[in-house]
Specification:
single chain; about 800 residues; Rossmann fold; 5 domains; six-stranded mixed beta sheet
C-alpha cells in the first residue's frame, strides 16, 4: 500500500487494483488533479486502509485475488462506518449490463468501463463527490435478497478466479522455463561487461561485449584461448601472466569465486586494465568458470585525476578547508596548518569561527553565511587569529560544493580557500612608502631650489655687509654667526635631499665629542629658555665614521622631538649624554640583528615629557607616523633619525613610560683612529684681474647680489636673465668674455642648452654651472658635460672666488 498527495485540503481517494500498472496510471491522474490518493492491491488491503485512513471516495477494480471488488463494495455497505463512502467500480473484465446492474445493486455510485477518457473519468469522480456531499447516493444494501445474490455472484467469480490463477500459474511456469533457457544468452548479449565461460582447456563462450573489449571480429578467434594469451607476458607487479592466471583459476574453483585486477591485451596489442570476477558453476554437469571482465581504463584515469587533484590540494600554498552544510570542518590541507598553527586533529568537527579575530563584526559573518547558504560564492578580505593569538590578513573565497544535479540548491559541502596577504600587504606598504619617498624627493627638490636661492642671496648680502662693517668687530662677528647659520641651513636642505633619494652620503672619520659640543651651541637657540638642557658629554674624544650633516640633523630632530614632548610639563628638562660603551655578551644576545661591532659611541637624548603609549613605540620610526597633534608634526623627523643611524651602521632604541618621559639611545660604531675635528678655514677671497664674467640667473636678486660680489672681487660683469639672452650676449662678443657662470634651470632656455649653443660659437669656452638643486642630479643625462664645474647654492664667497680663479687660470 502506498500514499500519494499533491495538495492538502482536497478529497482523499482509495484506488484498488491488483495490476500495478493500472494503479500507477490512476494514481498519477488523480494526483495531478489535486487529490490525495491511497492505493491497495486487493479488497483485503483496501479494508485495512479504510480502518486507518479517512477516505471520501473508493474506486475499485472487480477481478482481484484475496477479496474481489464486489465483495469489497458489499463489506463497505454493510459496515455502518464505511457505508457513507461513495463507491465507483472501474473494470475492464466485467463489462456486461448484468455486471453493471449487479454492481449498482450493491450500492455503487458508478460503474465505469476501462479504459475511460481521463477528462470524463475525472468529471464522473467530481460528480460522485458532489452527490456525496448532497447525500443523494446509496449508502447501504437496499434489497433483502441481496446477500444471497452477492454470494452466488461471488462464488462464480471465485471459480473464475481459481481458473485464472491456475492459468496464471502455468503461464508463470512457462515463462520461468523460457527465462531459464534464455538466461544464459541474455546475460551474455545484454551485459555491457565482457562475460566469458572458461573450462580447463580455455574459453568456451563469450558475449559480444567481450569480443568488442578485446577487439576480436569473430567469436572463433576468441574461443579455446587461455586467459594468458589475451595478456602481456608480465602483469603490473612483474609476475608471469600464465602462472598468475592459473593461480586465480584454481582459487575460483576451490573457493567458488575470485576477484582481482588484471592487465589484458587487445588484438591490436594495446593494453587495458580490467576488473575480473571469476565464479565457479556447472554446465551440463561439467565444472566451468564464469568470468566477468570490466574495462576500468576510465576508472583508472579518474583515479589518477583524483590523485593529482589531491596532490594539488595537499601541496597547494593556499590554505584550504572543507566543511559540511552546517559548517563543521571535515578536511584541512597542510597549508592551513602552516598558516593558522592548528593541527588537523584540533579542528576536525569544529567550526571555522575558531579563527575569528574579532576584527569583523557579527553582520559581516551573517552576510557571508547568507551568501554561501544561498548556493553562491563569497570572497573578501578577512583578518583571522592564529592558534598563538597573532593576527594575519588573508583573502578568503568560500564556495558551495554541488552534487551531480544542476540545481543551485543541491550543495553538500563548502570549500574555503585562504590566501595569506601578510607578504603582499608588506610589499604594498613598501611600495606606498617608496611612492611617499618619491613624492618627498620631488617636493624637497623644488623647495631646495628656491630655498638655496634665498640662502645664496643672504650669504651674498652678509659678505657685502661684512665688507662695509669691517671697522665694527662686533657687527662682523654677528654677521659671521649669521653666515654659519645660513650654511647650516643649506646643509639641512642637502640632508633632506639625501634622505629623499637614499643616496650615498659624505662619510668620513669625525671627532664626535667635539662635534657634539659644537652642535649643541647651535641647537640651544631652538630650545625655549624655560626648558632646562643638561649635557653629559665625556671628556674623551670619540671618533666615528659618519656624515656631520646627518648626525647634526639626528641631534636636531631628537632635541626638537623632546622639546615638543615636554610642552606643558612642570620643570621641563632635556638631557643629552655622550659616552663610550662596550657591549657585553648579554647585550649582544638581546640584539643579534643589530650588533656588528662591540665598541660604540652611545648618544642618549632624554626628556621628562608625556611619554609614548606602548602600542605606538614600534611605529615611531615609520614615515608620516606622529603622536603629535594636528599641525605639530610631519611624521618625518624620527624616520630620518632611523634612516641616518642605520646608514652609519648603528642602531637606535627607545625607552618610554607614560607620564615619565622618553629616551632615545643611539649606538654608533667607534673608530680607534682619532680624527681631527673640522675647523673653519678662514681665508680671504681671491681677487680677480679685471676678467669679464657673464653671469646668468633668472632670479633678479641673485643676479644683482652676485654681480655686486664679483665686482667687489675685481671682475667686470655682464648679466643675463635666461639662457637665450646669454647666448645673444655671448654671440655678440665671444672673445671679450672670459668665463660664463650659468644657472642650470631657467625659463626660455636652460643653462645646459645655453652652454651647448655657446660651445658651437667658441669651443674652448670656460663655463661654471650654479644650481640650487641637488648637485649630483642637476646635470643627470648630459654625459658630455657630466664633469663640468658646479657651484651649489648657497656658496661661500671665498670658495666661489677660489673656484673662479682656478677656472680662469687653467
Amino acid at each position: 500500500m502506498s500514499t500519494f498527495s499533491n495538495s492538502e485540503g482536497q478529497a482523499s481517494v482509495l484506488i484498488v487494483d491488483d495490476v500495478q500498472a493500472n494503479l500507477v496510471v490512476l494514481q498519477m491522474l488523480l494526483q495531478r488533479a489535486g487529490y490525495q490518493v491511497y492505493a491497495a492491491e486487493n479488497g483485503k488491503l483496501a479494508m485495512e486502509t479504510l480502518r486507518q485512513e479517512s477516505v471520501q471516495l473508493i474506486i475499485s477494480d472487480i477481478l482481484m485475488p484475496v477479496m474481489d471488488g464486489y465483495e469489497l463494495c458489499r463489506q463497505c455497505k454493510l459496515d455502518e462506518a464505511l457505508s457513507c463512502i461513495p463507491f465507483i467500480f472501474y473494470t475492464a473484465t466485467y463489462t456486461g449490463e448484468d455486471d453493471r446492474a449487479f454492481g449498482l445493486s450493491l450500492g455503487a455510485a458508478r460503474f465505469i468501463i476501462k479504459p475511460a477518457e481521463h477528462k470524463a473519468l475525472l468529471s464522473e469522480i467530481a460528480e460522485v463527490l458532489g452527490e456525496a456531499r448532497e447525500r443523494t447516493i446509496p449508502t447501504g444494501v437496499e434489497s433483502p435478497q441481496l446477500s444471497e445474490t452477492v454470494y452466488e455472484r461471488g462464488h462464480n467469480i471465485r471459480l473464475v478466479h481459481k481458473l485464472e490463477q491456475k492459468v496464471e500459474q502455468l503461464e508463470r511456469e512457462r515463462r520461468a522455463l523460457k527465462q531459464s533457457e534464455a538466461k544464459y544468452r541474455t546475460l551474455f548479449d545484454a551485459s555491457s561487461d565482457g562475460i566469458m565461460l572458461l573450462d580447463e582447456d580455455g574459453f568456451i563462450d563469450c558475449n559480444r561485449a567481450a569480443m568488442q573489449m578485446f577487439g576480436c571480429v569473430a567469436r572463433d578467434a576468441f574461443l579455446g584461448k587461455h586467459p594468458a594469451a589475451l595478456s602481456p607476458p608480465k602483469q603490473a607487479g612483474g609476475r608471469d601472466s600464465q602462472q598468475l592466471a592459473d593461480e586465480h583459476i584454481n582459487t575460483a574453483f576451490v573457493h567458488g569465486s575470485d576477484r582481482f585486477e588484471w592487465l589484458h591485451r587487445r588484438a591490436d596489442g594495446s593494453l587495458f586494465p580490467a576488473d575480473i570476477w571469476l565464479t565457479a558453476m556447472e554446465l551440463d554437469g561439467k565444472p566451468v568458470l564464469q568470468a566477468i571482465a570490466r574495462d576500468i581504463s576510465q576508472q583508472k584515469q579518474h583515479e589518477d585525476q583524483l590523485r593529482k587533484l589531491s596532490c594539488c590540494v595537499e601541496q597547494s600554498g593556499e590554505a584550504m578547508l572543507i566543511t559540511d552544510r552546517q559548517g563543521n570542518i571535515e578536511y584541512v590541507n597542510p597549508s592551513f596548518t602552516r598558516l593558522t598553527g592548528y593541527q588537523e586533529s584540533e579542528v576536525l568537527g569544529k567550526k571555522p569561527n575558531i579563527l575569528n579575530s574579532g576584527k569583523q563584526g557579527a553582520d559581516f559573518y551573517s552576510e557571508m553565511w547568507q551568501t554561501i547558504t544561498a548556493g553562491k560564492s563569497w570572497q573578501g578580505k578577512v583578518i583571522d587569529r592564529r592558534k598563538d593569538g597573532s593576527f594575519y590578513p588573508s583573502f578568503l573565497t568560500i564556495s558551495p560544493i554541488h552534487d551531480q544535479s544542476d540545481s543551485p540548491d543541491t550543495f553538500t559541502h563548502f570549500v574555503g580557500v585562504q590566501s595569506d596577504l601578510t607578504q603582499i600587504e608588506e610589499a604594498e606598504a613598501r611600495f606606498q612608502q617608496a611612492q611617499k619617498m618619491e613624492a618627498i624627493g620631488t617636493l624637497v627638490g623644488g623647495i631646495a631650489h628656491d630655498f638655496n636661492n634665498i640662502l645664496a642671496g643672504i650669504t651674498g648680502n652678509i659678505y657685502l655687509a661684512k665688507d662695509e662693517a669691517h671697522e665694527l668687530p662686533e657687527a662682523v662677528q654677528m654677521l659671521d654667526n649669521a653666515d654659519v647659520l645660513a650654511f647650516r641651513a643649506a646643509e639641512m636642505i642637502g640632508q633632506l635631499l639625501t634622505f629623499s633619494r637614499k643616496s650615498t652620503v659624505d662619510m668620513q672619520a669625525m671627532p664626535l665629542t667635539s662635534f657634539l659640543k659644537e652642535s649643541m651651541k647651535l641647537l640651544s637657540v631652538s630650545v625655549p629658555e624655560n626648558i632646562g638642557v643638561e649635557l653629559h658629554i665625556c671628556d674623551d674624544e670619540l671618533t666615528v665614521y659618519g656624515d656631520s650633516t646627518q648626525i647634526h640633523q639626528v641631534l636636531m630632530n631628537l632635541v626638537n622631538n623632546g622639546r615638543d614632548a615636554i610642552e606643558g610639563v612642570d620643570n621641563p628638562l632635556i638631557s643629552i649624554c655622550l659616552e663610550s660603551f662596550d657591549a657585553d655578551e648579554a647585550f649582544v644576545r638581546q640584539r643579534p640583528w643589530h650588533i656588528n661591532a662591540r665598541h660604540f659611541a652611545h648618544i642618549c637624548v632624554s626628556d621628562n615629557g608625556c611619554g609614548v603609549p606602548g602600542d605606538q613605540i614600534e611605529h615611531l620610526f615609520e614615515p608620516f607616523f606622529t603622536t603629535k597633534e594636528q599641525g605639530k608634526g610631519t611624521g618625518l623627523g624620527l624616520a630620518m633619525v632611523y634612516g641616518a643611524v642605520k646608514g652609519h651602521q648603528g642602531f637606535v632604541e627607545v625607552e618610554s613610560e607614560l607620564g615619565q618621559g622618553t629616551s632615545f639611545h643611539i649606538y654608533l660604531p667607534k673608530l680607534e683612529t682619532p680624527a681631527v675635528a673640522d675647523t673653519v678655514v678662514s681665508g680671504e677671497a681671491m681677487q680677480g684681474k679685471s676678467e669679464c664674467i657673464l653671469l646668468v640667473d633668472d632670479d633678479q636678486s641673485i643676479l644683482e647680489i652676485s654681480s655686486d660680489v664679483l665686482i667687489s672681487l675685481g671682475y667686470r660683469v655682464l648679466t643675463a636673465s635666461n639662457g637665450q639672452e646669454a647666448v645673444d650676449l655671448f654671440k655678440a662678443q665671444p672673445d671679450s668674455i672670459d668665463l660664463v657662470l650659468l644657472d642650470v634651470v631657467m625659463p626660455v632656455m636652460g643653462g645646459v642648452a645655453a652652454y651647448k649653443r655657446m660651445r658651437e660659437i667658441k669651443p674652448d669656452i670656460k663655463v661654471m654651472f650654479c644650481t640650487g638643486y641637488d648637485k649630483e642630479q642637476s646635470l643627470t643625462g648630459n654625459l658630455d658635460i657630466a664633469n663640468a664645474d658646479i657651484l651649489s647654492k648657497p656658496f661661500s664667497i671665498a670658495a666661489m672666488s677660489q673656484s673662479i680663479r682656478n677656472k680662469l687660470d687653467t
